[in-house]
Please model this.
Amino acid sequence: MASPEEIEKLIARCALSDRSALSPLYEATSAKLFGVLLRVLNDRSDAEDALQEVYIKIWHRADRFRANEFSPLSWLVVITRNHAIDVLRARKPISVEVDEAFDVSSDAKNPEEEAINSSEGTRIDNCLQELETERAQAVRGAYVDGYSYVELAERYAVPVNTMRTWLRRSLLSLRKCLER
Amino acid sequence: MSSRGKIDDQTDILLSEYALGTLPFNERVALEIEIKRDAELQQRLDWWQSQLVTFSQDIEPVDPAKSNIWCG
Model:
């Protein structure tokens, strides 16, 4: 894995339309970005297609990278993950709007025991631990696995509006903690 | 840390849902229009994204099979 400084330089070269920078940037970062895509899309073929599209986006957006906001890899992951969410939402029918959704709770099995893997030293993980376990898992599931409110509601057997309330309150709690 | 500035609580929570990826489609489209008009909203969205992206740290890299990338 290239250093953050090396990745940043490659992004900067892409921003200057230096085509020779894209291949080493791909070599340095594609495994991580592909991992993110695979996690959200859960389909290798879709993830491979999406990966190509992600690098096109990176190429076109490289001039918007602001090192003061993100580490270079984090910025690439944000682009990747947002693209994965777009792909995910596009391939799933918008079957129900939150406000129209009523009891979609079911006897679905409990959420899998996906541990809240604590990334040591990261503030958000510390803040996440202040939430109830299920709510923390739901927040992480929404981000890492790309679950929608409808999917989370099914997994946790609660109405969609309840899930949205859970997540919104959780985000407010996270904000309060992160801004302390 | 990004200041919320003039951004009210309701808008901030919408930005957080946007960053989380859970904002329903119609609300998402409406918010994207506002974000494009308002640099402060974009800055605040960046803040949320910079916080939430740390969830991805634990995702293991996986080598993609294809390596034929578009090169500009």
The interface with chain A takes residues 1, 9, 12-13, 16-17, 20-22, 24-26, 46-47, 49-67, 69-72 of chain B (CB under 8 Å). The mean pLDDT of chain B is 87. Helices of chain B lie at 9-20, 25-37, 39-52. Residues 39-52 of chain B form the longest helix (14 residues).
